[in-house]
Amino acid sequence: MTRFSELLGTDFDGEPTSDIDDVIFGAFDEPGHRDRVPGLVELMNDPAEPEIERFLACVALTTWSEAAGYEAVLRAAADPRNTPWYDFSVDRKFSVDSTFAQLAEAVADRDLAEEKGTEGLRMEAARALVRLADSEYFEDKLGELFDNATLQALLDDVKEVVGRGVQSLAAGEKYRFDLPTQLVDLASGVSAVDGPLAVELAMSVLNVGSWPRTLTHAVPIVYRAKGPEARQFGEYLMSVGDEKVQQLVREALGEA
User: Using an 8 Å Cβ cutoff, are 85 and 48 in contact?
Assistant: First the structure.
């Protein structure tokens, strides 16, 4: 049995499994997962091991709120393209690396962070990932990913990264994925804690261009933001969006 099979290919009853998620998420109900942490740290840091196995070890450690996992995410965020597993997982739609999307999901899970005393490190890792939102691909996850307390703590970072992204869009720089929509997804997440800021951020993107997919992803802000800015934003989307966007906005405003 390989080290990887022993650590992530075996469930906590000692049975082989092909579903690694069963092991990763089964750890929440199994304190014995801590016994696998040292081996996973060694696996993650061993350059002789396959990149995919090192990556999955990182995902497991991070999901389990282990300091070593968060520290690995911080290293990856500091130099994304030189991360050992960069490009091992490629998004089908844009043919770009998607490992940061998976790491973000792992960082967002905070079930064990308070218990293990790693909440501060988790927040550092979340901040480092958010600050990559104008350069690395996060699939469509940023609108639903982080809890409200995390978002509240990261508002300044969100404002900064959206501002950088808008500057890139306005300058006509080429990007490898749907950057406008990713920035609006981030604004959509913010709408759960700061509606006016979410509208401001989304409008800063949409003022550069009214991309159909981006407009569709902006509609959740109408649902979540409270106050007159939500209706005003919905009316704006109605004025620039296609029939699909208009219908979605009417539903969000309770007018369908």
Answer: no
Q: Encoding tokens for residue 146? A: 């982080």
User: What's the pTM value of the predicted model, to 2 decimals?
Assistant: 0.94
pLDDT digit of tens for each residue in the chain (256 aa)? 799 999 999 989 989 999 999 999 999 999 999 999 999 999 999 999 999 999 999 999 999 999 999 999 999 999 999 999 999 899 998 999 999 999 999 999 998 999 999 999 999 999 999 999 999 999 999 998 999 999 999 999 999 999 999 999 999 999 999 999 999 999 999 999 999 999 999 999 999 999 999 999 999 999 999 889 999 999 999 999 999 999 999 999 887 5
Please say whether the beta carbons of 30 and 10 come within 8 A: no
User: ∠ CA 112-114-117 to the nearest 5 degrees?
Assistant: 105
